[in-house]
Design brief:
With 177 residues, the chain is mainly β. It has a single domain, classed as Beta Barrel (Lipocalin), CATH 2.40.128.110. The protein contains one helix and eleven strands. It starts with a strand and ends with a strand.
Length: 177
């Protein structure tokens, strides 16, 4: 068996997240600078070893004041912790095109195991002769478990920002012979 290293194509990917805001709506954001690889045995995607990094200063919600708050010590502390990382511990097929991805997520200086759902979107040879594979990755984390401590409360009760953060990524990996 030979190992293949697939690289993420950032131009065709979205690394997004969503949080409840004041109990009534959702605010979405994304990371604009990230990298990932998937190492496979031959062509099988099952048991792939996946690594992912994102620059925390690249967080982007479309509102600069909120972006700066997310970069502060209340959340990512991008100056002290410039990168968040994910390293898979298992990637296994569940049913049809659905997979379970487990791994260790590190935000700030805290590493915790997480579990994500992955839907395999398919594979195609692009016009340049490269193999491409598409995936949708979803899940949720508790931000406070990773030291993202901002905790403003509403006068009527409830949090300004939910503890639960939903992850929603759409990614393409490319293999070049």
């Amino acid at each position: 068996m030979s190992k293949k290293v697939w690289k993420i194509d950032p131009a065709h990917c979205e690394v997004r997240f969503r949080a409840r805001h004041m109990l009534v709506s959702n605010v979405t954001g994304q990371f604009d600078r990230f990298d990932a690889t998937a190492e496979t045995e031959d062509d099988s995607i099952e048991n792939a070893h996946i690594t992912f990094t994102a620059e925390t200063a690249s967080v982007n919600t479309g509102v600069e004041q909120r972006n700066n708050h997310l970069r502060s010590d209340d959340f990512f502390n991008s100056e002290k912790y410039p990168v968040l990382t994910f390293r898979s511990t298992s990637f296994k097929k569940m049913k049809d095109d659905n997979y379970q991805l487990k791994g260790d997520l590190t935000i700030r200086d805290v590493t915790k195991p997480i579990e994500l759902a992955v839907e395999f979107g398919g594979e195609i040879k692009d016009p340049y002769g490269n193999q491409r594979r598409g995936f949708t990755v979803t899940g949720k984390i508790n931000r406070k478990e990773f030291g993202l401590k901002y905790n403003a409360l509403l006068e009527t009760g409830g949090a300004v920002v939910s503890d639960e953060i939903k992850v929603d990524c759409h990614v393409e990996f490319v293999y070049k012979d």
